Amino acid sequence: MKIVVTVKLVPDTTADKRIDPATKRLVRTGETVLNPFDEYAIEAALQLKEKLGAETTVTVVTMAPERGKEVVRKALAMGADDALMLSDPGCEGSDVMGTAYALAGAIAKNGFDLVVCGTQSTDAITGELPGALAEFLGVPGLTYVRKLEIDGTTLRAERETDSGFLKVTTGLPAVVSVTKSINEPRYPSLKGIMGAKKKTIAPLTLAELALEHPIGSGGAKTELVALTDPPARGKGKVVEVSSGAEGAKVIMDFLHAKKLI
Ligand SMILES: Cc1cc2nc3c(=O)[nH]c(=O)nc-3n(C[C@H](O)[C@H](O)[C@H](O)COP(=O)(O)OP(=O)(O)OC[C@H]3O[C@@H](n4cnc5c(N)ncnc54)[C@H](O)[C@@H]3O)c2cc1C
């Protein structure tokens, strides 16, 4: 079984974020990390591999500039077998559809039975990529998966919803995106970190994919028209009360007035 995990390079969650006013794009040259949500996708794939046996392979795929290699190494150190890295200046400015289309090209070229994605990235945070990927690959797409089992060519999953969960069964090949409740990602071991240095990170260019439609800024169907800072927060209101009960009433009245309860 060929399992592919999509991993994204994102700015460090704790780093200050800056938008370049000229390009209206997030400046991504600072400290970067493996998208934290993708650690759950890697762990889910590794647990499947452990259950399914040595014939199963886990390949991580990313669309990122060359410096993304260091981040890919973390996925390899966790236990993924190898990586495929689409690094090409022509990818710059790709919107969600362009990113999904290019990744679908790379994944189809590699071959797959199951693609596991994180639920969302921590920078663009659209959560749309997994669905778009399934569409471009022409396979079922199950998002927000919190439990995942493979039995032969049957995939059984539980999908989180606002009010509970859905039990869904589908055939492979398929794409899933997993939530943080699916597992607790492992830390890379020292042996894993050392071993990752020898694992293959295969480079891939757009020319090799020979995509039918353009990606990058020229192919983007989305245009960021304007950006503004959020309005400054007003001063908080301090209320002095003589008892907890009185304080609770003040809070309830406040929430009622705002129609929040
Ligand atoms: C007009 C426009 C221009 C943009 N220009 C750029 C740009 O120049 N550079 C840039 O980096 N972004 C750019 N973006 C943002 C880019 O479109 C999104 O980051 C990307 O499409 C993925 O969407 P997301 O991060 O919301 O993914 P989500 O749907 O929130 O992520 C879900 C999962 O998809 C997978 N995933 C997402 N992105 C990748 C990836 N690149 N490689 C592998 N797996 C991935 C991960 O597993 C992730 O957990 C641009 C967006 C717009 C609208």
Write up what this structure looks like.
By secondary structure, the chain is an alpha/beta fold. It has one domain: Rossmann fold (3-Layer(aba) Sandwich), CATH 3.40.50. It contains 8 helices and 13 strands. The strands form 3 sheets. A 9-stranded mixed sheet has the order 11-10-9-12-8-1-6-7-13, with helices on both faces. A two-stranded antiparallel ribbon has the order 2-5. The protein has a two-stranded antiparallel sheet with strand order 3-4. Helix 3 crosses helix 4. 34% of the residues are buried. The mean pLDDT is 94. Bound molecules: flavin-adenine dinucleotide. Flavin-adenine dinucleotide binds next to helix 1, strand 6, helix 3, strand 8 and helix 4.
Considering the chains and any ligands shown, give keywords for the structure.
alpha/beta; Rossmann fold; 9-stranded mixed beta sheet; two-stranded antiparallel sheet; 13 strands; 25% strand; globular
Topology of this protein?
Layout: E1 2-6, E2 9-11, E3 19-20, E4 25-26, E5 32-34, H1 36-52, E6 57-63, H2 69-78, E7 82-86, H3 96-110, E8 114-118, H4 129-137, E9 141-151, E10 154-160, E11 165-171, E12 174-178, H5 190-196, E13 201-204, H6 206-209, H7 216-219, H8 244-257
Parallel strand pairs: 1-6, 1-8, 6-7, 7-13, 8-12, 9-12
Antiparallel strand pairs: 2-5, 3-4, 9-10, 10-11
Helix pairs in contact: 2-5, 3-4
This protein binds flavin-adenine dinucleotide.
